[in-house]
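Summary for the lay section of the report: proteins are chains of building blocks that fold into shapes. Here we show the chain for Protease HtpX and then a coded description of the shape we predicted for it.
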Amino acid sequence: MAKRITYFILTNILVLTTISIVLQFVGGYIVDGQIAYGPLLIVSAVIGFTGSFISLFLSRWMAKRMMGVRVLDLNGVLSEEEEAVVEKVHRLARAAGMMYMPEVGIYESDEVNAFATGPSKKRSLVAVSRGLLVEMDEDAVEGVIAHEVAHIANGDMVTMTLLQGVVNTFVVFLARIVAFAVSQLAREEVAPIVHFIAIIIFQIVFSLLGSIVVFAYSRHREFHADKGGADLAGKDKMRHALEMLKQYTNRIQNDEQTAVATLKINGKRKTSLFSTHPDIDERIKRLA
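The coded shape description reads as follows.
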């Protein structure tokens, strides 16, 4: 599970930490040796939402670089299999009422997976793994792609960004309150340094705890994407895709494969607080 959530958590934490370090020197929320909670909340919201929106705008570029995605251009040289993938994505996107077609990509991996990402419906990406095309039949592949197109059509990336912005705001706010309390226990000459270091440490800790909320939303969102996929490709194809995914998951003893967890269709079968996807059996049951 750790590998699957690493990219999502690190991108947000690194952006958040960078902005925090820069704005830390601006100050403005400590007045006469006491915290001014109003200005602190404003600073926290600025840092929190700026961090989440930067992560959103970087999402498509980051996914391509991290996963080694090759964008499939219909004007280029494509195999029949790759042309079929592009055709499926565009057909399902039109069925979903999308005005702009997503970029379509493929990445060379034996894992059976796919993901959708991007800052908007106009600048989205649907990518599938080579393993998905090898392991699954045509109907199952269409079900998987329909699921990913549904994520885009539902605006899941933007909704998650807003949720992450709210979580970030509380993370920054609480980290500074706790860091200020800790700095009051230090000697006066080192208190500013203790305060600065404590902010970074508590911000990372609270970010990890806050991710529980984001992952809970991610699991909730998967049921809606399954329903959307069923509306686009047909319930039989969506159910067939989930059943084939379950068979594949059962064959995997050690899931050490790398992927963009926030929007992958594949997830570990058993659900935990840090799972981005719900139990596959529950997804099949809900779909039925």
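Put simply, here is one thing we learned. The longest helix spans residues 191-233.
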